Structures are given as structure tokens and as C-alpha cells.
Amino acid sequence: MADKYKIQGGTQLKGEVNIGGAKNAVLKLMASAVLAQGESKIYNVPDLTDVDIMLEVINGLGIKTSHDKKEKSVTIDATNITSVTAQYEYVSKMRASFIILGALVSRCKEAIVALPGGCAIGERRVDFHIKGLEALGAKIKIENGYVHAKAPRLVGTDIYLDIPSVGATENLMLASVLAEGSTRIQNAAQEPEIIDLANFLNAMGADVVGAGTSEIVINGVKQSDLHPIEYTTIPDRIEAGTFMSAVVASKGKAIIRNVFPAHLTFFTDKLIKMGASIKLIEPTAIEVSCKNRLNSINFVTQPYPGFPTDLQSMAMALLTTANGVGIITESLYENRFMQVPHLLRMGADIHQDRNHAIIKGVKKLTGATVSASDLRAGASLVVAAIMADGTSIIENLHHIDRGYENFDAKLTALGANIIRYSEETENTKGFKNESRV
Ligand code: EPU
User: How far is the CA of 124 from the centre of ligand 1 (A)?
Assistant: First the structure.
């Protein structure tokens, strides 16, 4: 059933919100659990459709899994693996499942994994993943849309990534855990999710050094050195940044809990430059507030620790009503301005030229019917609707469901006037038509 959000803007967000586990960490931890024989358990798992897809991929290998949504945990019992194939049906739905390639090559010495293909935000090639695996000694054939990798023997080597790709760094970390000797990944991605993966692997008995820097060394261990573990995922920095943006957009004041503030330094710095106030009130809690009209800023998205591409759309929503002109340069993806036509429908003044967007702040946005074209573009429309005058309808929520757990419930708890309803019933009971400024 197609669901929609109905949002009445103009409500100041107040109170507290708890951030869940990081989607982009937990999906990789789940794939890594395949490496060790026995039952691993992962905590702080958000209830997201992407988590469900990763479980399906892992089940497809003949591995038993369970998902306790109340406890926010998944268990993965990788005692036996009966298949080395990850079907297109799943990989095409979620690119992150391509990480199973590295885990299977390590554990089973063979993998047949569907090529993910491009997606809405860009071409998103996997050539670094493939070249890195070949450098480790895997024989790779690409046939009928699948990567067939055979690796009876993997030997550690130096691998240089042309771009610090998150996925390639992770896939190659997994592939080299059981290789002979040491593998050195240079120009590695430095995202917090990479550190979380290294911590998970080390807890499992692997030997990974340098995660969080541009050079990661994986000293190969034996299969018998690996054992199942229990592990808690880090908080989701992008969910945190999204709620920070929503609070700022509403000119409200709220506490964001379960966040690692150091993971958001660049984003926080930009929000402060725009005029928001951000205070660290506890090691894992920040208070965000904003009273006045924001000032425009310019920024370029970059790999961590630069401005995160996943928060670019949220910042764009804020810039639509800021004072002055802001310029955004998107340096990671070819097509990550999918929110622009929808923000224009809400009255924004944005000129896009390839990977540059020039945003001239207008006095106000007005509510409109818009559509989520991908996960982060969709979330930015929620932020825009919260600050717009009048009512907005946001369609295609399945994109938002991939990365935000209970998004409407968390926003409602902060005082937002938002309701999720089904297209079929059009039942919006509980929606307050009056703005509660
Ligand atoms: N690239 C290549 N060849 C490769 C790999 C990457 O050309 O072999 C290019 C990509 O096309 C892209 C750039 O390198 O232009 C960066 O891609 P990267 O591999 O770093 O991204 P990813 O691993 O596919 C993860 C997150 C994304 C996030 C990016 C960048 C997950 C599941 N996804 O993607 O998150 O935008 O890193 O930080 O971890 C999201 O959560 O909405 C999302 C898209």
C-alpha cells in the first residue's frame, strides 16, 4: 500500500528525540557476521526495510537469522552456509548487499553476487571492489549480470583506491580478513561506519589496524581464530543530522540523544555558521536551537570528515529560506539533487547546473504535494514541509522507510503536525489542521 505523509508546517519542534543505530554500519556488520561459524548477535539495529533486505540476502545463503524488533537485535547463525549466491532480486533493491561478496569470498572461497547496477542518485560503479579482489588473488568473471568470484587462495597485498569508496573499503576489509599475510588499503574511506566495522571484526578475532585513517592494514588470521560475538551498533549520524535540521528548520529547541557528536563535526560547524545554536549537554546528547532567520553558506560535499553527501539535501532545504545566496557543490554523486524540482514546487529559488546548486533564500516556502525520489531527498522534503506555510503531502514513503525508523512518530513526539496515511483509505484521523506555533 502506498503511504503518504501529510505535514502542516509552522510548528516549533521541542522536546527530545532518541537516535537509532546506524543503517550504514549495521548492514555491513550483518554481512560480517557471516565470517565466523556460530551465532552472532547485533544490538541497536534500527527497524528499516534495508535491514529486512539484508536479512533476506543472508537467509538466501542458508544461514539462520532472527530479528527481535522489540529488543532491536538480530541474530545470525552462520554455523553452516549452503549457498554462495546473492540474487539480483535483493542486490538490485539495496546496493549495500553487494558487501556480501567480500564475506563469501573470505569464508567460502567462492561467491556469485548480482551486480547492483546504478540507482537514482548516480552510476555507482563497483570497479574498485572488483579490482581489489583481483589484486588479492580472486579470479573474477562477470556473466549474466553476476560477479562470479573464485578464490581458493587469497594473499595480502597493497591496494590503492582511486576514490576513498566506503563500500570498496568495506568489501576489501572483509575479503582480506582470512587472506595470507597483510593487506594494506591506501586512500581508504575514513567514515565512522568503517571504524565500527573494524571494531566488529577485531572483536570477532580479526586483526585490523588503522580504521578511521586513510591507510588500513588487515593482517590475515585463520578461520579457527574467528568466533561469533555480541556487538552494539554505533548511532546513526545521518538520522541525527536530519533531526538537527528539522529542529533548526522549525526554529525550535530540542535535545538529540544517543548521538556521537564527533561524527557530526563538519555538519555542526556549518549549522552554527548559519546561525543555529548547538550545545553539547552530555557526551552523547546535544541541544539544538534556532531563533532567527538563517544565513546562507556555501559548501562542497566530501568523503568523511568533510560535509556528508547524505546531509546535503537537508542543508539545501534549510538554505531555501536563509538570508542571501548559498552554493552547494555535490562532489560524490552525479545525480544527488533529486529534491530540487520538489523544493521548487514549494516556492524555493534554486538554479542547478550539473553538480552545482545556487540557492537564493526566499522569505517562506509554501506547502505542496511532492514526492520522495530517494531516501535523503525524501527526508529533506519532510524538513522543508516542517518549515513551510500550509500543508504538504509527501508521496513515495518507501524510499524514506529505507533509512528512518518511526520517522513520523519521532517527529510527532517533538510536536510536529505530521500524519502517515494510506493512499487507499485517505484516513488522516489525528491530523491537526491548525498550526501550533
Ligand atoms: N565509486 C566508483 N567505483 C567503485 C565504488 C565507488 O566509481 O567501485 C564511486 C561511486 O560511484 C560514488 C563514489 O565513488 O560516486 C563514492 O561511493 P562509495 O563507494 O563511497 O559509496 P557507497 O559505499 O556506495 C555509502 C553509503 C551511502 C553514502 C556513501 C558516501 C552505505 C550503504 N551507503 O555508499 O549512503 O552516500 O557511502 O558516504 O553505506 C544513504 O545512506 O542514503 C547513502 C546513499
Answer: 7
CB of 176 sitting under 6 A from ligand 1 = no
How far does residue 125's CA lie from ligand 1's centre (Å)? 9
CA distances in angstroms from 97 to 30, 60, 64, 321, listed in the order given: 10, 12, 17, 38
Torsion of CA 19, 23, 25, 31, to 10 degrees: 140
Q: Quick one: CATH architecture of 3-20+235-436? A: Alpha-beta prism (3.65)
Q: Which three cell numbers stand for residue 386?
A: 516542517
- Hey, do 3-20+235-436 and 23-222 end up sharing a CATH topology, with the first three levels equal? yes
CB of 243 shorter than 6 A to ligand 1? no
CATH class of 23-222: alpha beta
| Ligand 1 pocket mutation pick from 332, 339, 374 by most atoms within 8 angstroms of CB | 332
pLDDT in tens, 178-197: 999 999 999 999 999 999 99
At residue 399, what are phi and psi to the nearest 5 degrees?
-65, -45
pLDDT tens digits, one per residue of 295-319: 999 999 999 999 999 999 999 999 9
Return the active site residues: 119
Q: 436 pLDDT exceeds 90? A: no
For residues 124-139, give the mean pLDDT: 96
What would the grid cell of residue 130 be? 572488483
Taking the CB of residue 435, how many other CB atoms lie within 10 A of it? 14
Of all atoms in ligand 1, which is nearest to the CA of residue 332? 15
376 touches ligand 1 (CB under 6 Å): yes
Q: Kindly give the distance from the C-alpha atom of residue 121 to the centroid of ligand 1, in angstroms, as a whole number.
A: 10
**Any idea what the Cα angle at residue 247 is, between residues 365 and 242, rounded to 5°?**
90
* Top-confidence residue, 224 or 429: 224
Q: Which helix (H) or strand (E) holds 33?
A: none
Q: Which of 94, 169, 158, 181 is nearest to 129 (CA)?
A: 169
User: Closest Cα to atom 39, ligand 1: which residue?
Assistant: 24
Ligand 1 near 378 CB (within 6 A): no
CB atoms within 10 A of CB 424: 9
- Considering only CA atoms, which residue is closest to atom 10 of ligand 1? 124
Contact assessment for residue 24 and residue 193, using Cβ atoms and an 8 Å cutoff? yes
pLDDT score of 437: 29
Give the domain ranges of the chain.
Answer: 3-20+235-436, 23-222
